[in-house]
Amino acid sequence: MTAIARITLLSMVLGLSACAVQRPEPAPLPPIPPSQPKPTPSTAPTPSKPGIPAKPAKPVPRTSASFAPPPGGNSHWDAKLGVYVLDDQTNTFYRQRTYYRWNNGWSRAISPSGPWEDTDIHGVPSGLGRQFGK
Q1: Which residues form the signal peptide (predicted)?
Q2: Is residue 124 included in any domain, yes or no?
Q3: pTM for the whole structure
Q4: CA distance 35 to 41
């Protein structure tokens, strides 16, 4: 046999032998104890536990992890819409250096004071289109 044939044969044998290695069986799980009968639910209201306050609602984030807020404007991030909502201007939004305004149709501008140019639903972020474009 030639040296190349021997090396090839040896490589194949070693490679296939790795497939034959078996892992040990896992230890058996402990037996499951018999089930206890479940109590029937009562129709009487259960009193709340005194001294344990209810969990507070998760605070609404003021900013987005992906988009910078508008410069100098009072706004908050609306994750459902995917934009910043300007607090002091009705139906005015901001994302990626563009302001969007809904007034019976969409318009956009690079400043919150305009000049505004008309656009359609395709020119606004998808969350806004779903909310107002109906």
Answers
A1: 1-20
A2: yes
A3: 0.53
A4: 17
